[in-house]
Amino acid sequence: MQGEILSVKVPAHCGELVEGNDGAHHFLASYGVDLYSQVSIQQGQTKQQLNGDKSRTLLASMEEQYGISCEGLSLSMMSEIPVGKGMASSSADLSGLIVALNEWFQLNLSREEMFKILTEIEPSDSNLLAPLTLIDFMQGDILGQFLAVSEMDLLILLLDEEIDTYQFYQKNQYKDFITYQTLLSDFINACQSQNISRIAELAYQSAWLSGVKYPYLESFYKLRKHTGFFGLNIAHSGTTLSLWYDGEILPRENLEALVNDIDRDHLYGCVMPQRITNTGIQIEWGNNNA
């Protein structure tokens, strides 16, 4: 591998379409967004530029469990994903790191095996897996895989707060299992029939069930009366609200004007135009001598 460099890019995941506990599983489904965390490995001076303690914990665990050593390797991690907003920044970092280690050391672990390892570090989003995957984010179980949500335009609104996802799920207690069983069953049916309108309804229902307070949530949802606006979802453990639309039918400038008319106090301090992406994880080998 002399002279080679491995690069792994992992997309953010924007909030949750649905999330809850049906009494058997802590279930979650989300979708990819065109913001990325990138992990690179190459031979050279031993150097580890990792984001946060969890990445270092994962690296140490992989070295111990699989007998690998990163001596003589340069590991770097860069991310453009907002932190603490419910966009799976930590899950993207950890997913990129474990995929990079799996590729570099030829460990031959499946994505399912790697996902299980990640949930031992922290509750994990499905960045590692194919879109659209329904998961148990606490136990690392895969509950279903469906055709991906169509790639569409997003207007992502961020509140000026940060959330510790791990602490959030340690405190969160679900009680109404029957309601969540219905939500889960309805979501699976909507995914199987590729009913985006129904998925949008269930994402809104899940947002309300979460108990997380987002300013003007109902007003934003009512934008569905405008042609080209499809729905919204929130980060149940973050501060992100994502609006789904078709920019060719409803231009972004027009949607931003509607948002500003609702959010006159500018409680959402950052507005980001993005797109849903279904490309998943991108793995690329190159030559650093080129």
Automatic annotation (TrEMBL):
Keywords: ATP-binding, Kinase, Nucleotide-binding, Transferase
SUPFAM superfamilies on file: Ribosomal protein S5 domain 2-like
Domain of life according to the entry: Bacteria
Signal peptide: none
Gene Ontology molecular function: any one: ATP binding
InterPro entries according to UniProt: GHMP_kinase_N_dom, Ribosomal_Su5_D2-typ_SF, Ribsml_uS5_D2-typ_fold_subgr
Pfam family, one: GHMP_kinases_N
GHMP kinase N-terminal domain mapped to chain residues: 61-122
Protein name: GHMP kinase N-terminal domain-containing protein
Organism: Suicoccus acidiformans
